[in-house]
Each structure stands twice: as C-alpha cells, then as structure tokens.
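dude i think i finally got it to work??
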Amino acid sequence: MPNAAAGGQLALDDALLLLSGTRRLARLVSNALRATQLRPELWLVLEVVAERPRSLGRVATALAAHKGTVSRWLTQLEQLGLVDCKIVRGDMRLKVTSLSALGRHRLEIARSRIAHALEELGLPVDDEARAAIQDACLALCPADRSSEEPKTQSPG
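look at this
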C-alpha cells in the first residue's frame, strides 16, 4: 500500500507503482491529450519547441529520437498549424521550428489537462513527474523503421 506524503500527495515512486508502469502512465497522458487532438509524441515535440525555437537535429537530440521520425512529427504539426518552420537567413539548409500562436494555445490546454489528470490521482506535478511522463510516452512512440537492423537471409 503506498504511503501518503504531506498534503495528501503520494510520493512519485508510490504513484508510479500505483500506475503500474510505463504503459499506464502513457495511457493517462494519452487520455488527457484526447481533447487537444494531439498524440503523446506530438505533445512532446511541442514541449521541446516551446522552450525555444530549434532545428530538426536539436529537437531529435532533445527527444533522443531519430531525425526521420522527428521530421515526420514536425511535418504533421506544421500541417496542423501548431508550429512554424522558417529557413535561417544565411544558411538555406537549416530550418528552425517554433510554436505558432495556435500551438502555444493547444500546448497550454494539454499541460492543464495532464496536470488535472495527475492531481485527480493525487500525483505531484513536478519536474520528476514530467520526466517520467516523457520517458513513458517516448517508450510507446512508433519506432522509426529506418533504425531497425536490416534482415539478412541465411544461406540455404
């Protein structure tokens, strides 16, 4: 049985045990994001880009994801009007992604829904919880097929 901490909040370790691991935590986030029409991986990209405008490579590094995967996510976000991609003056090869006004609004809604879902369960909304949520969501993101090892046929 988890121990209640001061103020009726559960310790994060107890809370994660209560949520029974990565899939349950990611499902909590996914359900909270449903009204914002964002999948967890797109929400994570918005969180990274919200800090400051970034290039594709820097977003991929921040998420520890492959560039091809992040490129697809950024394209989807751009089509939804949630991010703006601009070519850097002086270097036509480099595009920098930043949040659009709609993206900022959608991100605020997502943050409040996730915080509300965590608070309903008595979980703390702190940096450690955010890191656990990010790890859980990334663990369940669709894999980048280009990162898989090519299958070789055995001589037969």
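The first helix runs from residue 12 to 18.
im so relieved honestly
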